Amino acid sequence: MKIDAIATQPHFADHLGPVWLALPTEARGTLYIRDRAHPGLPNAFHAQPTRSANPTLTASAGDLALARRLGRPGAIMEHGCGQSFGGGRKGSQHSSYAGGTGRDAQLFLHPGPHPAARDRAVHPDARVEIVGCPKLDTLPRKPVRSKPPVVAVSFHWNCRVCPETQWALADKEFQRAVADMAKSREWTLIGHGHPRARSALERWFARQKVEFVPTFDEVCRRADLYVNDASSTLFEFASTGRPVVVMNTSFYRRNVNHGLRFWEAASVGVQVGPKDDMLAAVRRALADPPAQQAARERALDLVYAYRTGAAERAAAVLVDWAGA
Q1: What region, left, alpha or beta, does residue 273 occupy, with left being phi > 0 and alpha being psi -120 to 50 degrees?
Q2: What is the pLDDT, as a whole number, of residue 1?
């Protein structure tokens, strides 16, 4: 039985691509992607998927629904750290996140125990497996720090599911902080952001006279420190052994606990609010003392059950599921 995959966004392909490549040749079907320039996936098929009975791996609720409309038995793998928003009524059942409704997959593949537990509770008849995050093995490392260091500032897209899904760019203080960082000679500043906000962020960083780096791979190749609000890339960058700064907006609710980024794993880096001194936070993070490193490791352990071998682990589960 051939196993296909559908990735309608490049950041979905970042997660599915390694799994598709890890499948045994005899089980590897077609990976349908729309991004013709996606690195590392030269043999992906750039077209809309067709009707098929092939088991199909997806990385989003939308792609899962597409697979089901095409008669395909569907599996879904997180395209991030498994963050969900069950701490508040709004967002707790959103189909885009673990534990949401409308995610009628036969198989769920998760990076860690938190999202797995949420999907098990809502989908008791489905198979739920913890495999890690395949993207982590593909991320570039940077063993030697640049002089001056390179600092990347990145924002989530302004998703309106709940306050914690919105970007920190809505806080004027963070806008001013980035402008101040751009003027400093202590570091070289580059900009980045969620693919859904690329156009808006590219224009915004240009107004700050900051180079915009479109791919996260390139950020990982160049940056010594990553500043971010609420994207899974916060943990992905930290997994490479480098420090991060965590932006907490004025509207992120401290009395609402969603888990992971909000709030147990927020200690992955130096936390900074809109009223705090961003430049001082960046300096503390760049120092990266042993206590900060230990806190980063503890936070990553909450997010990822495994930090290597996820693609092979996921491929083995897919083969077993497809043959069942």
Answers
A1: beta
A2: 84
From residue 162, alpha-carbon distances to 156, 213, 231, 251, 258 in Å are 13, 27, 14, 10, 11
Residue 37 has pLDDT above 80, yes or no: no
What is the Cα 35 distance to its own chain's centre? 18
pTM, to two decimals: 0.96
* Cβ(57)–Cβ(77) below 8 Å: yes
CA atoms within 13 A on the CB side of 203: 3
Owner of token pair 């490549």: 21
Write the pLDDT tens digit of every residue in 102-137.
Answer: 899 999 999 999 999 999 999 999 999 999 999 999
**Which domains, and CATH codes, for the chain?**
3-133+306-323 (3.40.50), 150-303 (3.40.50.2000)
Torsion of CA 290, 295, 298, 304, to 10 degrees: -100
Q: CB neighbours (10 Å) of residue 238? A: 22
Question: Over 90: is that where the pLDDT of 283 sits?
Answer: yes
